[in-house]
Amino acid sequence: FERFLNPERGSPPDIDIDFSWKDRDELIQWVYDFFGHDKVALISTTVTMRARHAIRETAKALGIPESEVNEFTRPIPGYFMDHVDLHELPRVFPECQHLPIEREPWTTVLSHAQRILGFPRNLSIHCGGIVIAPEPITHFTPLQRAAKGFVVTQMDMFPIEDLGLIKIDLLSQRSLGAMRDCLAAVRTHTCDAPPVGNFARITADPETRRLIHTGRTMGCFYIESPGMRALLERLECDSFEMLVAASSIIRPGVAESGMMRAFIDRHRDPSKITYLHPKLEPLLRETYGVMIYQEDVMRVAHELGGMSLGEADLLRRAMSGKMRSHDAMDRLEQRFFASCRRQDIPEPIIREIWRQIASFAGYSFCKGHSAAFAVLSYQMTYLKAHYPAEFMAAVLSNGGGFYHAGAYIQEARRLGLRILPPCIHESEKDYVGRGQTIRIGFMAVKNLAEKSITTILRERIKRPFSTLEDFAMRTRLATPEIEHLIMVGAFDCMGQKRTALMLELAHLRKNHGGKQGDELDLVGPVRSDTCLFPRDRSESVQPGAALRDYSLAKRCQLEYEILGYMVSAHPLELITLPQSVTPACDMQQRLGRRVRMIGWAISSKLVRTKNNGRYMKFMSFEDLTGTFEATLFPRTYQRVAPLTLTHGPYLLEGRVENQTGTFSLIVEKITLYKNQKRAP
Question: In sequence order, what DSSP letters do the residues of 598-623 get, joined into one string?
């Protein structure tokens, strides 16, 4: 209650509402229409020159080719702030060790880029902010058009709030779109109505609880990251209440203070439950004596710190990430210490309680927020447990989540689903899951225009496509679009080799104005972020050459380039596995032992250590049996950082450790593995 209607608060509350990302534009238009276009505007945010921006803009002005700029800036993290010395990049950030900063033209580029670091780059749009005024908004703030044509306030969110205007965040949420699409597909395919609105039923469902308990929640809102899935296993999470707690303790404020580990230890062993002071027991009994919600902090500040609930809410705001105020924290700290001393609480205990309170600066959750997230998490997990094909197709169609699309494709395979390539007769725009299959949609095909997809769907309703020429004449797609469709198997339904179709397309192009004697490159461009596909033009076809279909390796190469993942095989099926490697499914049986493992990287997280600020990296891998986690501590990461920029495949060596219920490979050595099979 005090969070919103607080008489001691000097600014209005935030109003944040999540909608499906597919509905957000329509909703914003409704706000304009309902309240009046003269009273509504999107809120601006000023984009400043960070390291990557500054280098790119400088290099562009100096005429350096874009391909060279992309190669140079690729390892520089996008979040690198505007106060770094660009000449120190290799020292500060290990993945930049190989950058040629001491060679021209990059020495000149960095010198000029350093001068514009932190400069405004462009006026953009706040990720969800919209403001509604009681009278024409130009009475309060000047307006201007942002880069994409939207009218935005020239002032950003903080001055807007200082004016007394209410900021509303209409946020787009992809999981809400995925749930809606999944429900629609299930109703279409099975005439069933999944009971996701029946809270008691889905939280009691044994299959749903089993997936959460074991951390098999890839694709499920908020509980699919490697850290969250590991946490679910460590907590042996088997109830809605525990999932609510997990949603909060994973947050930086709790996790980085050591309270997450304390909560886990006390949950697994109740004998470890302690309270810093007897007065904390009735306040924190539900959370084992640990503060994990914002409400916990407010209650402690009220009961021990002598603050009114309104003042406790001001403390919450003072320590929040985007509103953090050191002056306010200092004043409240003095007030808190004085009140605790009056109650004869020992000084060391006061300091420890305040340390835990101060740690919540990292965006801790209120309990209601955690509960709302946990409801959606349960709903998504229920759909995954009972309708895996429709669920995974919906996740892919809505842009996935924590992982790239290829990781979800492999997760679908682990669920026993068969992945079907795009098809000019069967595919829709989106992915379609039904029964035990997922059909890849046209949306996944690189550079296939929206209008081209619409044309294909419209024309095939009239009658099926009989030949490649019939397709080309009726749809009038650009040649590169048709090439991409052929390369990923969309014309396999015609019963011809993909190479034969490519040659037929070359003849069609020549007969309709193409250049004479064009060599048809059946290989296509090769992405540089994997060592699986060295550049090989052996399958380029010259006139009169013997015609063979693509090898398995070439099919995978083209699928990887055009779809972003492989359909015909998993990447590790293209290599000869070295002897004595441990599969992911056997990792737990090798606890405490040194092992060698082969993996395809599916995610990574870079962190800085608390004691010396050095970088380390957590990486997630998959092999043909499952997924596994790996930890690269600073000394190892410093040595191999530039190697960790690709998907791999990697050969890893290290020791398997169990960190409070989570098994991880502590990496001692990591190399890119290049031994390829000669696939037929």
Answer: EEEEEEEEEEE-TTT--EEEEEEEE-
CA-to-CA distance for 314 and 611, rounded, in angstroms?
31
Contacts of residue 55, defined as CB under 8 A and 6 or more positions apart, other chains included, come to 69, 72, 73, 76, 86, 109, 110, 113
pTM of the full predicted structure? 0.89
Report the range of poorest mean pLDDT among 2-16, 481-495, 496-510.
Answer: 2-16
Helix residue ranges, H only, 387-414: 388-397, 405-414
Q: Which helix (H) or strand (E) holds 15?
A: strand 15-20
Distance between start and end Cα atoms, the chain: 67
How far apart, in Å, are the Cα atoms of 645 and each of 94, 95, 534, 597? 11, 8, 17, 18
Q: How do residues 575-604 score in pLDDT, each as one tens digit?
A: 998 888 999 999 989 999 999 999 999 999
Helix (H) or strand (E) holding 596: strand 594-608
Per-residue tokens: 613: 């600020």
CB atoms within 10 A of CB 444: 24
What pLDDT digit, counting tens, does each position of 448-500 carry?
A: 999 999 999 999 999 999 999 999 999 999 999 999 999 999 999 999 999 99
Q: What is the DSSP letter of 271?
A: G
